[in-house]
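> forwarded from #structure-qc
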């Protein structure tokens, strides 16, 4: 019972923290907190969906960059939002649309929304 109570408290604190962490495979993920599912594992889990995120994001814009795609990760409210994109932005909210979501505690996957 004690372990489940501690896990529940941890989930509530993590989910309500409201903190956002942001990084890319070019810049690194050193600012991400330790979670049961580390950012590197979340990226591995997301691999089957990254091409789809890139295609969806490209289709949703009028103009696109010709730069090489980068993996962008935003950790918000206990979920990793992971996309491939070649359009540079330093606003974490920019990379939430069409992201594959990976729960940082359970590893649950939510596929990109079209």
């Amino acid at each position: 019972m004690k372990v489940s109570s501690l896990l529940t408290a941890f989930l509530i604190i993590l989910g309500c923290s409201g903190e956002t962490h942001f990084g890319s495979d070019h810049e690194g993920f050193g600012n991400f907190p330790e979670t049961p599912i580390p950012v590197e594992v979340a990226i591995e889990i997301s691999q089957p969906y990254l091409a789809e995120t890139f295609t969806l994001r490209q289709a949703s814009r009028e103009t696109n960059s010709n730069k090489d795609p980068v993996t962008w990760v935003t950790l918000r409210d206990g979920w990793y939002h992971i996309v491939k994109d070649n359009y540079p932005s330093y606003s974490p909210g920019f990379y939430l649309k069409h992201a594959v979501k990976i729960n940082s505690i359970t590893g649950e996957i939510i596929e990109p929304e079209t």
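QC bot note: Residues 89 and 95 are 8 Å apart (CA to CA). Strands lie at 20-24, 70-76, 79-85, 100-103, 109-110.
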